[in-house]
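Incident log, support desk, overnight shift.

02:14 A customer reports that sequence design results differ from what the structure should imply. Their input is reproduced verbatim below. On-call engineer (initials T.W.) acknowledged and began investigating.
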């Protein structure tokens, strides 16, 4: 297959070893538990600790803070291996390349030493609370308030669609710290959720897919958080901080989407080779050949775009428009490729026991989270 002959230019021998490690770990610790995680709507906390022991958490965080000392390329290797096993439960994408990097980029030395080692070990699980019932991609509509009272912030508000919401120990909250309109009044404040008065985990959200993924509503009622937990030296920098980190989040989503395209093609090709209809296997039919040829080419194009962005990001050159382009195009392609590959399976493609079925429902959200794809196109257009 043409996908098997392509090697990402940023891959190294060290990253090949990381891919082998992640593949073996996921096969042993993840795949046998997928059905149970879907039933309980979250992965086991013990799984996070095992991932930390294996060195798969916070791999792009410096070693001085307990991380692996790698780059985003190392994160991309792990994300791709998750896609290889059709994972739709483990939200390391939120924990390692997103939450940990907010702390690394904007935290004080004391904050980084207090929180990052626990995130790298899996003892602390990270989440970020951006979305509200009336504020999704438009973060300037955030209503959650954080009012300074002595050495604390008193926080009131609610958040929804929060990934890792059930298990999170470290929660980065987007809150309004002044009456300034729009983006000007937003700040990022970290809550340590264990036994925190006023912090409430709301209902677990029933999704059409990603049933093993921990997604929940959160509420804050006169919740007191130390003022020292503000990220950054001054209030009102939250929107700028978000804009600085969102390109990495969107690239992480694109990496997963491109890898999912490849996984779907491989699953469909293997099925077509072994499934017989009208006296021959499905791969003997011209339509099946053409569908898989087109999907494999689309998958290769997605990986080439991602590879360009990973290279640019590791070099410190990735801009918002390019990251947005990768996010919207790769997730659009993920939906298209997975849908066409599911068709190869016929009725079996609609059965939840088949990975392609889980991939189909999981693919739908990728065009929405991390910023809806329509917003991505607006961001790209601003660069003209």
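02:41 Re-run completed on a clean worker. Output:
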């Amino acid at each position: 297959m043409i996908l098997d002959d392509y090697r990402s230019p940023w891959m190294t021998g060290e990253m090949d070893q990381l891919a082998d490690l992640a593949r073996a770990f996921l096969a042993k610790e993840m795949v046998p538990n997928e059905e149970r995680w879907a039933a309980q709507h979250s992965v086991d906390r013990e799984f996070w600790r095992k991932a930390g022991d294996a060195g798969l958490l916070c791999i792009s965080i410096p070693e001085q803070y307990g991380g692996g000392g790698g780059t985003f390329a190392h994160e991309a290797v792990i994300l791709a291996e998750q896609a290889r096993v059709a994972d739709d439960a483990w939200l390391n994408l939120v924990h390692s390349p997103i939450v940990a990097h907010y702390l690394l980029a904007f935290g004080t030395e004391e904050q980084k030493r207090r929180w990052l080692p626990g995130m790298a070990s899996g003892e602390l699980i990270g989440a970020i609370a951006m979305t509200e019932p009336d504020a999704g991609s438009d973060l300037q509509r955030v209503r959650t308030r954080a009012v300074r009272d002595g050495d604390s912030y008193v926080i009131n508000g609610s958040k929804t669609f929060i990934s890792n919401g059930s298990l999170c120990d470290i929660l980065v909250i987007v809150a309004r710290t002044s009456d300034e309109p729009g983006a000007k009044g937003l700040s990022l404040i970290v809550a340590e959720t264990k036994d925190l008065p006023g912090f409430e985990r709301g209902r677990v959200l029933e999704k059409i897919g990603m049933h093993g993924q921990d997604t929940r509503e959160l509420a804050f009622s006169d919740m007191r958080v130390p003022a020292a937990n503000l990220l950054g030296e001054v209030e009102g920098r939250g929107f700028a901080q978000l804009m600085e980190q969102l390109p990495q989040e969107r690239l992480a989503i694109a990496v997963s989407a491109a890898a999912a395209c490849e996984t779907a093609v491989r699953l469909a090709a293997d099925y077509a080779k072994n499934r017989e209809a009208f006296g021959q296997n499905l791969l003997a039919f011209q339509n099946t050949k053409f569908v898989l040829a087109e999907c494999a080419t689309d998958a290769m194009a997605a990986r080439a775009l991602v590879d360009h962005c990973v290279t640019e990001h590791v070099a410190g050159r990735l801009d918002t428009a390019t990251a947005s382009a990768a996010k919207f195009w790769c997730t659009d392609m993920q939906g298209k490729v997975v849908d066409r590959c599911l068709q190869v399976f016929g009725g079996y493609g609609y059965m939840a026991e088949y990975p392609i079925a889980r991939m189909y429902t999981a693919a739908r959200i990728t065009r929405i989270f991390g910023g809806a794809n329509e917003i991505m196109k607006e961001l790209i257009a601003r660069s003209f």
